Amino acid sequence: MRDDMVLAILAAGLVGFIVMVVWLVYELRKGNVEGAPALFGTWVALSLLTVLFILVAAFVIDNALFMFFGSVAAGIGLIATAVAIFLTPIFWAFVIRHRARRKGAEAS
Prior knowledge:
This protein is mainly α. The protein is built from three helices and no strands. It has one domain (3-107).
């Protein structure tokens, strides 16, 4: 396959994934996401998309830190990136759990 075709397929997949995540967030905010599989799928999708954006931003920021301030600043940026990636699934788990409990309390 040609490189531009591979890039187009990857871009289409990324756009589809982003649309799915936006739809899941919308449904979660409306309270339409019910059941453990739906909540788990929402958690996985949101965590993966957030980590993807963190990695892209970290690439740009860490390179800028390295160019302007040196390797120590870039190392600190990498540590901050690792912490952010570690905390992302935990953050989304708390948000989704809070929404699910609030929805359950409203239904009762």
